[in-house]
Amino acid sequence: SNRTFTMIKPDAMKSGHAGAILDRIIKEGYRIVALKMTRLSETKAGEFYAVHKERPFYGELVEFMSSGPVIAAILEKENAVNSFRTLIGATDPAKADEGTIRKQFAASVGENAVHGSDSDENALIEGDFFFSSLERI
Ligand code: ATP
Predict the structure, then answer these.
(1) Cα-to-centroid distance, 128 and ligand 1 (Å)
(2) How far is CA 122 from CA 14, 49, 58, 112, 114, in A?
(3) How far apart are CA 43 and CA 53, in angstroms?
(4) What are the pLDDT digits (tens) for 53-88?
(5) Taking all residues of the chain, what is their mean pLDDT, rounded to a whole number?
(6) pTM as predicted
(7) Residue bearing the CA closest to ligand 1, atom 31
(8) Which residue of 1, 15, 54, 132 has the fewest CB atoms within a 10 Å radius of its CB?
């Protein structure tokens, strides 16, 4: 598919990097299909990351993702899921390549500035989680 889903996470919102991150995404050639600033309740954050509920960091992750506003977006570009994961870099910013968004803006493996869907199937599920059908035409 040519779409992926992203979120600018609370750490990047708090540190004032949201504009720079969106600018980078647009300059890399992604079309913004849908965009909103919103907040996740603990319940909603828990649902979004339900695949991780057995992981030791789940509680911390849910608390962090509900700690402040996020920006959610659906992005369009050829090979969107894979190209966007390359653009954001490794989960742990210490291991992220030079020039990636996480290398530039992320503080730690937990507070890592951005989310990017890991498959076409999840991109659809995650986009549906935040946007109505009319908002993601
Ligand atoms: P995302 O799904 O947010 O794009 P990812 O696919 O790079 O990230 P996952 O392994 O799916 O990474 O982990 C999901 C999220 O859980 C990470 O982005 C990070 O915020 C958090 N996380 C992952 N590993 C750890 C850890 N060891 N300690 C704390 N938080 C973690």
Answers:
(1) 21
(2) 26, 11, 18, 19, 16
(3) 12
(4) 999 999 999 999 999 999 999 999 999 999 999 999
(5) 98
(6) 0.96
(7) 110
(8) 54
Tokens linked to 104: 């530039």
Band of the pLDDT at 1, cuts 50, 70, 90?
confident
Protein fold of 3-132:
Alpha-Beta Plaits (3.30.70)
Query: Residues with Cβ within 6 A of ligand 1?
Result: 52, 57, 60-61, 91, 109-110, 112, 115-116, 118
Kindly report the protein residue whose alpha carbon is nearest to atom 2 of ligand 1.
115
Task: Measure 137 CA to ligand 1 centroid, in angstroms.
Answer: 29
For atom 7 of ligand 1, which residue has the closest CA?
Answer: 91
Task: Kindly provide the ipTM of the predicted complex, given to two decimals.
Answer: 0.93
- Annotated catalytic residues are 115
* CA distances from residue 116 to 58, 90, 101, 134 in whole angstroms, order as listed: 17, 11, 11, 22
Point out the ligand 1 atom lying closest to the alpha carbon of residue 65: 20
Q: Ligand 1 centre from 71 Cα, in Å?
A: 17
Domain edges within the chain: 3-132
